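We give its fold:
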Amino acid sequence: MTLLTDIRVVEAELSTTRVTYRAPLKFGGRVLRDAVIADVTVTVESAAGRRAAGHGSMPVGNVWAWPSNRVPTDQTLTAMLRFAELAVDQVTRITGAGHPLELSEQLSSCFARWADEVGRQLALPEPIPRLAQLVAASPVDAAIHDAYGKVHGTNSYLLLGSDYIRRDLSTFLDERFRGEYLDRYTLADPKPRMPLYHLVGALDPLDDSDVGEPIGDGLPETLAQWIAFNGLTHLKIKLAGDDLAWDVDRVVRVEQVAAEAQARRGCSQWVYSLDFNERCESVDYVLEFLDQVRQRSPRAWERIQYIEQPTHRDLAGHREQKMHRASQLKPVVIDESLVDYESLLLARDMGYSGVALKACKGHAESLLLGAAAQKFQMFLCVQDLTCVGASFLHSASLSARIPTVAAVEGNGRQYCPAGNHGWESRYPGMFQIRDGQVQTGLLCGAGLY
């Protein structure tokens, strides 16, 4: 049965833009100096005959999604862009009309075949990972959801109930979700304001003593300056994962610098998240790290809100890396490993207590896994991919509409503010940060935001 609200994609177009970073970003042992942004526009037609265009945008993120010792970085970028081109070409060939969840499901069912095709075309020495496939196709998925809201003249998050889709969540997840729809796990109105998580990269100066050659573009150069400039209360600290002394020292020093900066502005409450980017050899490293931080800086320890995936992203291949002991101390969230519902279930079994959603893994996938995490009472956060412009608004909309997410991560303004040009005037409260908050209540227009 076709619903009058169902849509089909009739046109799709891809364009790309390269944005240079104002400062290098180091994570997972690699350094980024620019980003390629993929923008997709789709035109959809509803069963009632109305048409509208939707937009999806996302950094390609190949260095994060596909860190390879066998495929050069420029080739992983080429492969992911080729995959995105296939997704754009094939989305107009989806059979029948449906809700964006159903169209996204059909689209993702082709990913493995497209990955094989691109691998043959480029003679790749290894397959395109599932995570890289999700990231490459995510602008298409976002564009479909955005167009769905626009063709119906309302916000896309208001179109997730049984009036708009024939199938309940059990058909996308499992029987535990029988009779449930995504409107049970999302907010009808976005949260008015949310704290912004600011990234403290491994190369980022903490205070004036760390500054070698100033950038000199008028923006802050150090963590202390950023805290004062934006009124920050949430700091995400990138760590090495294979250098215990450096990691402990880094957190202790961030605490020292932040305490001085916060004292100057009269702030006593702030928090940290810690990101090892899978570099820890085992959970024992995490436990020893936490113990040393607690001994050297009890206040830094208390401020740790959660820890991002510390060990290898291949959970099935590293089942011995269980997180139960670490999760008893602080929430430990699955990030790079989270590519489908099965990976979430495996992570739960292995002791992960939280889930990090990312818009770059697909809007539909994020909504579904966000529902599952809430069902299982897991800690939830939404993380960034140095998103700029529309991609940041998309990511922030997820944070604003999922009830248990407490903050918005966004570091595009730090590393590649050029990508936000033109968007600051349209959404000033999202790109001009005051009191450490983003004005997520603005994200209530037709479409995704």
Summary: The CA atoms of residues 200 and 237 lie 5 Å apart. The two ends are 29 Å apart (CA to CA).
